[in-house]
Amino acid sequence: MSAPEPTQSVGSYSGSSFYWALKLLPAARRDAMFRVYAFCREVDDIADGDDAAAIKQARLKAYREAIEAVFAGEPVELSSVDRLKPVIRDYTIAKADLLTVIDGMEADAFASVRIADEAAFDRYLDQVACSVGRLSDKVFGLEGPQAQKLAHHLGRALQITNILRDLCEDAQRDRLYLPADLLARHGITGTSPDEVLAHANLAEALDELAIRAEGCFRRADEALMHLDRTRTRPARMMQAVYREILKRLRARGLARVEQPVRLGKLTKLWIVLRGLLGHGGLP
After folding, report:
1. Is residue 72 within 8 Å of 88, Cβ to Cβ?
2. Does the N-terminal or the C-terminal CB of the chain have fewer CB atoms within 10 Å?
């Protein structure tokens, strides 16, 4: 398998947890993952941008059409999609997973976001997180039921943690990713993010999601036990980082959303070093 040509500098992503995780990969796989990440980051930036919803949807449609063109062997003009060609060739990336990433960005590309029910919530988690896990499995060289289990559960754990961490920031953008039926089970029936985040029962609803994330982390642990430890180092590192975030969110109080919880670069690096030295559950 030949190494792809270098793509965007990995230093461009140095503030991301993905950066530290992907630094653990061999050079060819690392470059391939940064190509995948660049694509995901680009469509995510469209969804998070300031353009009108119709413009965002049109731009994302262009990415969808470019993915279709790549798999049809046709030329494409979008550089981040064009740079996926050697990754698709060398790692048998599935077209469906790339399109699923775009599905998730289309769900975000509106002036406001609400999640109607648990089914929609689970579908969203699959689109924006588990699909990336499935893409990562291919590049990491992971296959079979345990790899699928890892992508399924770790993706959900990471994204639920993201949602719990970013509630206040999302509310400022009129986004609320808490499923309405889950909120209703705790007596929260409002639809305004500010109203929901100020509700007396918010902590109970968030605790239900935190418990769900913890369960997903445990099931990811089960999958990791059956997978090659070297190839799963990035996944283990991401799990360690986000478990620490969830731990700090619980210690802060899940409903105290106005108090941000972030891990600095040095903390993330320390988690990596602990892993490389054989501590903290990493190889």
Report:
1. no
2. N
